[in-house]
Amino acid sequence: MLLKRICWVFSLFLLASIALQAAPTKEAGKELFSANCGSCHAKNMKDNLTCPALGGVEERWAAYPKTDLYKWIRASQAMIAAGHPRATELWNQYKPTIMNNFPGLTDEQIESLLLYIKEPTSGPPKPPEDPTDGPKESGNMWLFAGLALILGLLAFALMRIIDNLGNITRVQAGESPVSRTLSQVLSTKGAVAFLVFALVLFLGYKAVDNATRMGREQNYQPDQPVAFSHKIHAGVNKIDCQYCHDGARRSKQSIIPATNTCMNCHSAVKKGTISGTSEITKIFASIGYDPLMSQYIPDYENWSEKQIEDLYKKWIGQEYMSANSLTAMNDAGRTVVESQWEGIVKALKNDSNGKIQGPIEWTRIHNLPDHAYFNHAQHVSIGQVACQKCHGPVEKMDVVYQYSTLGMGWCINCHRETEVKFADNDYYKQYERYHEELKDGKRTKVTVSDIGGLECQKCHY
Amino acid sequence: MHHDNGIWVSSEDLTRDESFLRSAEKEFSVETMAESDGSWTASRRDFLKLMGFGLGAATLAASCEIPVKRAIPYVTKPDEIVPGVANYYASSFVNGGDYCSILVKTREGRPIKIEGNTLSSVTSGGTSARAQALVLGLYDMRRIHSAGTVEGGEVKKLDWKELDNKVKGQLALGGNIRLITNTILSPTAKMALAEFTAKYPNTRVVSYDPVSSAALLAANQQCFGVRGIPNYKFGEADVIVSFGADFLGTWISPIEYARDYAAKRKIKSIKGATMSRHYQVESHMSLTGSNADNRILVKPSEQGAAICALYNEVAALTGGAGIGGPTLNDKAKASLKKVAAELVASKGKSLVVSGSNNVMEQIIVNKINDLLGNINTTVDFSVVNNMRQGDERDMMRLIGEMNAGQVSIVIVWGANPAYELPNAGQFKDAFAKVNTRISFNGSLDETTGLCSHAAPAHHTLEAWGDAEPKTGHYSLQQPTIAPLFETRQAEHSLLEWADSQNLNRQDDQPYYQYLKSVWASDMFAKQNKYSTPAAFWDMTLHGGVFDMHAAPVTVSFIAGIALNASGVTQPGSSELEISFLETVNTGNGQYAHNPWLQEVPDPVNRTVWGNYLNIPVEWDGVNNINGWKNLNDGDNVEVEVKGQKLSCTVVRTFGQMPGTVAIALGGGRESGGCGVGYGVNVNPWLPIEGGFIQYAAKEARVTPAGTVDKNFACVQFHHTMGVQAMGKEEGKVINADEKSLGWKGFQGSLTDRSIIFQTNLSELPELAEKMTEFHEEASHLNAQTLYPDTAEYFGTGLKWGMHIDLNACIGCGACQIACVSENNIPVVGKNEVNRHHEMTWLRIDRYFYGDIENPKVVYQPMMCQHCDNAPCENVCPVNATNHSMEGINQMAYNRCIGTRYCANNCPYKVRRFNWLDYTTADVWPGNEDRVFWVEGEDKPYYADNLVRMVLNPDVTVRSRGVIEKCSFCIQRIQEGKLTAKQEGRAILDNDVRSACQTACPTGAIVFGNLNNPDSAVSKASKTSGALAYQVLEEVNVRPGVRYSAKVRNANEELHS
C-alpha cells in the first residue's frame, strides 16, 4: 500500500519535471537576465540603477495586454514613438536613457525572465556541504534518527513491561499497583545519568566537529575589487585556465594573473559583455592604458589622480554616449560616469597602495594554513588533475567561491583513490617492485598513497 | 687516566668528573631556566593563571572571524620571475679581502640563500660560514637608511643632491684627500678611484686589512720582486708546514686552500692509501692546527726561532748556509729536525707557509721554500692572489698626517679603523682634526660614528661590481634585489664627486652602465673567447666568473738578500704570553654584527657570542686535569697586556701550550649592530713592531677575578652523546645518556660505543680489519630482532642517505650556517644558548684524542641520522614523528604536542625543542623578553619585518612547544623530485643536494639516493669500504647517515 503511494508520488514528480523542462524556467530566466539585463537593471530587482528596478513589472503592466510588455521589452523606442501610455510614462521618467532592443527574445524566454524577476534567487547555487560524501552523510543521519526512534520506543516499551511486571508481582503480593508519572520516570537516577552522558557526548562531538571546521572556509565567496566573471572568460569564451593562471603548470602557486596578462585581450576588448566600461576601465587604470588612443601611457607612474580621473571619465562618457546614440552628455550619463569612476577608485586605492596606479588587490579565496605545502605544478603537470576537481565548476561561476573544504581528509582521500600516471613517466621507473607486480598481475594499479602520498612530510615541512 | 676509546671532549670527560655527568645529562637544562631568574618557577598559582589564559585564548580564538587575506599580483610581471619558483643569480661575496663566488637564491625578488658557484676555479662551489651568512646582513635592521650628516650618533637625513653639493664644495677647496679602505678586489672600482684621483690629484688611497698580511707582501716584494701573494698549491704538496698560518680557516683564501688540502687527504682506497702530511707550528689550537697531523708547540715569541731552526736544518741538508737564530724549546727543535728531513725528501712537492707579520720571518720562509725547490711549483707566481693588499704602515703614516693637520677630507670605505687598529685611540684623536669625514659604511660603526657625513653604500647583494681575487680570475657581482634603503653605490658616489664624464647620470643604474662599459672595453680586449662585448658580458654575468689563462711566470729568489736571524721575533722571557687569533665567524669584528655568525660555535673551543680567553689545561701526569690556575670554564679574569686591563671570561682549551693563553679578535664592538656588548675588544693589546701589527704579545698577566660569567655560552656539554662519567650512585663509570634515561643495561651500554673511529695512516689496514669485525658483530647483534626486515619496504623507489668523510671535514662551520639559512632556524641569543636552548639542526661535535697535552682533534658533523629503526618514532604519543618510505624520519610540527619523549630517546641528541616562540617572537606574554633582542631595539629580533624577509617561504616557521630537527632538506628533495618528474626522467644526484652539502668547501658531505648504486653517496660508502660506519651502529637504530673513519698521517717519531 505504502509502496504504491510512493511510486505514485514519484512518477508525478517525474512528470512534473519533464513538463517544466519545456515551459519557461526561472533558471533560464536567470541566465537571460545576466546576459542581457544585468548591466543596467539591479540584480536584486529592488533598486533603481541607470534603469528602473524590475521587481513588480508585471503588476505595473497589468492594465495592458501581456503582448504589450513583450513588445516593450523587444523594442521600447518603437512603443514610445507609437505613444503607448505606459511607455510614454516611463520615457518621461527615465529619458534620455534608452533601453536596448532585444528583438531576438522569444515569448518563452520573456516568460522565463519574468519568472526570474518575480523571484530572483541571489548568489550561485550552493554545493552540498561536502562534495565527496555529503549526501551519504545526510542519508546516514535519517538512518540514525530512525534507529534512535526505534530504540527509544523499545526502551519505552521495555520500561512499560518492567512496570507492568512489577505491578503484577505487587498485585500478586497483595500490594496496590504503583503507577509512575513521566516526570517520575525521567527523574530516576538512571535516566538522569543517561541524559548527562548523552549531553556530554553530544557537546563533545560538537566541540570536536567545530574545532576541525575552524579556519575552513568552504563556500567562501568574498566581493572582489573587479567584478571579474570566470563564467564569461572560462565558460562562454572558453579561455584555458592556464592561459591566465600560468603558474599552475610550473610553480607551487597557480598565480593570479598580472594586469598585463589581462591586457593581452583587453587592449582590444575594451568593454565588457555585461559590465560595459565599469570593470575593464579598472584594468586600464591599474596599468595605465589609454583606451581612447589605444596605447600605454608613458610616465603613468607620475600621473596625478586628477589626470587619471579626466582621462577615464572621458572614456566612460564617450562610450556611454555612443552606446546610447547621444550627441551630448546628459544627467544620467554623468551619474554613470561618476559612479563608475567611484568604482575605480574604490577598487584600486587602498591602505597599502594610496594611489590609482598599481596592482589590483584581490581578496584571496583559497587559503591553506602556513604549515601545509601545496604545489600546483605537481598536481596539474604531473598528476594531470583537472582544475575543476578541486576548484569546482569555475567556468560556471560569476563570482568564484571556495568549492572544496581544502581540509586534510579531503586531500588524503584523493591521494588514496588517485592512480599515478605510472607508465608515462620515466621518473617512476625506479619503483621496480610495483612494475613487476603490475606485470605479474599482483597489482592492478598504483595509487598516490602507494608511493608515499599519505606521508606527513609530503606536505608538512 | 681512564678513557677506554681514547676519545674525549673535555677534561671532565677525561677524568670522569661527576659535574660533567650532570652537565651532559641536562639535554634541555630546565634547571638553569628556573635558576636564572625567579619568575619562571611555576607555582600552582602560575599554573592556574596560565590555564585561565589558555582557556580565554581558546575561547577568543574560537570566536574570531578568519581574517581577510589579500592576493596582490604584479601589474607587469617580469618574464624571469614565476612566483613560487626560485631564481638563482651568480654574484660575488667580497668583503675586504674575503672572496667567494656565489649563487644567490631569490624568491619573488628576495634573496634568501647563498650557494657556492661551481663554475669558479677559485672556490669551486665551496663556501665559508661568512659567505653563507651574507644574506642576513642585507636585512640588518641597523643599516643606515639614507645619506646624511652624522650628529650625536645618528644620521640626519640629507638628500643625495644636497650631500653631493656639500661634498663637492669641500673637495673643491683643494686640501689633501685620503681614502681609507680594506683590500679592494674590484678592477672597476680601482678605475673609478683613478678617475677620482685624476680629478683631485691630492688624493691618496690608504689600504690596510683587518688582519694584516703586510709583512708577507713586503717579503715577497723583496725576495721575488712581486708585491703579491703567490698561488699556494696545497693540493700538490706532500708535506705542508705551517707556522701559525690558519689557512683552512681564515688565512688569505681559506675556501680554495681547504678544497685543495682535503683533496690530498681523502682515502681513495684502503690498500695503498696516501695522504699529505701536515705539520702545524703554533701555541694555541687553531682550526688549521686542529686538522694537522702533528702540532709542534712553540710560544708565540718563538715563532721566529722555530722558522730559523727549520731553515738551519733544511740548509744543512741542502747545502745552504746556516743563519743561527734565537733559542727554541728542545722539543720543538728536535721535531723540526725531523720535519726538515722529510721536507728535503719531498723537494719540489712540499710547502712551508707562515702567518707571521714579520718581514724577516717571511723572507726566511721564502728562502726555505726556495731551498726546497718549491718556488714555481707549489709556490706559484704565475697567478698572483690579490686577496690581501693592505699595509698598515700607510695607516700609521696617515695618522701622522692627520695629526699634523695636513688632511682636510677623509673618505672611509668599508674599513673600520676606529675599532680595528691597535692604536685606534690615536686614530680617533687624529681623525677629529680632519675637517670633512665621510663614510661609505652601511652601518653606524665606530668609525662612521666619528664622521661628519654618511654616504651609505649598497649592501653587496644590492650592488653592481666585479672582483679579481686572483690575477686573471674575474668575477662579477650583480644586484639581486632593488636597494632596500636610499643608499648609493660607493663607486657611484666617487664618480659623481669626480664629475666623471663616464657616468651616465640619466640612467637608472649609472654604475651598472659604467661597469658594463669598462668590461666592454678593457676586459673585453683581454680575452679572445667571445667575439662581441655583449656576448662576453652576458655569458660572464650568467656564469659569474671568467678566467683568463695566464702564461706561466717563473720567478727566482733574488740573490743577495740577507737573511738575518736578529730580524725575527726574539723569544720573550715572561711567565705568560698571549696570542690573538682570527676565528672563522667574526673575523676582526667585520662580521660581529651578524647573529648567525655569532651563534655558530667557535670550532675549537665551542663558545658562542663573544671572545673568550683560551687557557691551557694542566695534567698532573697521574689523575687530575685542571684548568690553568685552577680556573674553570666561565670564570672571569682580569687580563693585563701592554698596561691595559680588560675583564675576560676563560675557557679551558686542550692543545693550548702551557705558559701561553690566546683570545680571538673581533669581540667588544661598540656600535653598529647586534654584536655590541659581546666579548672584549683586544685590538688595543696588539703590539706594533717595525710598523707591522703583531698578533701576539710577549707579556700578559692574568688575575682571577673570583667571579663567574652567568651567561657563559659554550655548547661543549650540550647534546653530548656516548660520553661516560663516574656515576655517583653507581660508583662506577656509566654512559651519560644511559644515566639520563634512568635505564640500566640497555643494549647500547653493554658494548663499546662507536662514535669516532680513528687511526694513523700507517695502521690503516689494522683499523680496517678491526672495523670489519665490528661491522660483523654489530650486524649479528642487529639481526637478533623479532621485527620483520625492512629491506623490501625501502628497496623500491628512493632511499635517501648521507655520507660524511671525517677526513675531509675541517670543522669550518659553513654547513651549519647553510642549514640555519635554509631551514629558518632561529637565533636564540646568548642567554638561551647558556640554557642549552640553541636550535641548530646540525652541530659539529669536536672530539680530542691522543696525547693529553697536545691532543689531536676530529670534527663530526652531527644531525638527525634518519634511523630506519628510529627510537624517537615509537615513543611519540601522537605519531608526530614517523618514517617515510624514502627513509626519512619525518617531523610534523603541527601534530607535535611537545612531550619531548622523542628527544629523550634520541641516541644522537639531535632533536631541538622550541622552548619559546623564537621566530614569531611576539605571540605569548612573557616570551618577548627571553627571545633574542638586539640591544636598544623596540621589538624582538624576529618580530622585525625586515629580518623576516630572510625566511625561506618553503619551510614552516615553527612555533613554541614543538620539536624540530634535520629534515634532510625535505623541501629540496620534493623540489628535485618534481623537476625530474617534469622532465620525465630518473632522479639524478644534482637534482637534490642538501644545504650542508652545497656549502661544504671540501666535499666532505655527500647526499643522495642509496637505492641507486651509481649515486655519489652509494659510491662514497663503497669507496670507504670497511672504514664507513654508522654512529652507534650496534644499537640497531639503522641510521641513514654514514661516516668514514678519521685517518691521520702523523709522524709518530715526533712524540708531540
Summarize the topology:
The complex is a heterodimer of chains A (461) and B (1056).
Chain A: H1 2-22, H2 26-37, H3 57-60, H4 66-74, H5 76-82, H6 85-94, H7 107-118, H8 134-172, H9 182-186, H10 189-213, H11 230-236, H12 241-244, H13 259-266, H14 277-287, E1 289-290, E2 295-296, H15 305-323, H16 331-348, E3 362-363, H17 376-382, H18 387-391, H19 408-417, H20 432-440
Antiparallel strand pairs in A: 1-2
Helix pairs in contact in A: 2-7, 4-5, 5-6, 13-14, 14-15, 14-16, 15-16
Chain B: E1 7-8, H1 11-15, H2 18-25, H3 30-36, H4 44-63, E2 70-71, E3 87-95, E4 98-107, E5 110-116, H5 129-132, H6 134-138, E6 148-151, E7 154-157, H7 160-172, E8 176-181, H8 187-199, E9 203-207, H9 214-224, E10 229-232, E11 239-243, H10 254-263, E12 277-282, H11 287-291, E13 294-297, H12 303-318, H13 330-345, E14 350-354, H14 359-371, E15 379-385, H15 392-403, E16 407-413, H16 417-420, H17 424-431, E17 436-439, E18 453-454, E19 465-470, E20 473-477, H18 490-497, H19 510-526, H20 533-543, E21 545-547, E22 577-581, H21 595-599, E23 613-615, E24 617-619, E25 625-627, E26 635-641, E27 644-652, E28 660-664, E29 688-689, E30 692-693, E31 696-697, E32 701-708, E33 724-726, E34 733-735, H22 736-741, H23 747-750, E35 758-760, H24 764-783, H25 791-795, E36 800-805, H26 814-822, H27 830-834, E37 843-849, E38 856-862, E39 881-883, E40 889-891, H28 901-905, E41 912-913, H29 945-948, E42 963-964, H30 970-982, H31 995-999, E43 1005-1009, H32 1016-1024, E44 1028-1029, E45 1041-1044, E46 1046-1048
Parallel strand pairs in B: 8-9, 8-16, 11-12, 11-14, 12-13, 16-17, 17-18, 22-28, 23-27, 35-46, 36-45
Antiparallel strand pairs in B: 1-37, 3-4, 4-5, 6-7, 6-18, 10-15, 19-20, 20-21, 22-31, 23-28, 24-25, 26-27, 26-32, 29-30, 33-34, 36-43, 37-38, 39-40, 41-42, 44-45
Helix pairs in contact in B: 8-18, 9-14, 12-13, 12-14, 15-17, 19-20
